[in-house]
Amino acid sequence: MRSGLREPRFNDHPDRGCSLHSSCLECPRSACRYDKVRSVRRPPADMANRDENIRQRRAEGATIKEIRAEFVVSNNTIYRVLATKPAKGE
Question: What is the Cα Rg of the chain in Å?
């Protein structure tokens, strides 16, 4: 157990649940509504293809802003792709 966390039986907070269920501990849902949603990562093949296309667009003279809008990625992702060498086979 991590320090600072207490087991539920030693917790002084009542289990009030949420608007979806009256009790957190008895909730039938597989995911809590308060859990952070994790993004779904692309398969490596899709990412390699995307990276190749980003490099191609930059070589054609597209700006970072244009690439960002086209591929819906952050500036940091674009700079990281451009800074890394393509894998063999790309």
Answer: 22
Count of alpha carbons within 13 Å of 70, Cβ hemisphere only?
A: 15
Report pLDDT digits (tens) over 46-76.
Answer: 788 999 999 999 999 999 999 999 998 999 9
Answer whether 47's CB lies under 8 Å from 13's CB: no
For 79, residues 6+ apart whose C-beta sits below 8 A from its C-beta are 64
Give 14's Cβ-side CA count (13 Å radius): 3
42: CB partners within 8 A, 6+ apart: 50
Q: What is the pTM of this model?
A: 0.51
C-beta separation of 17 from 23 below 8 A: yes
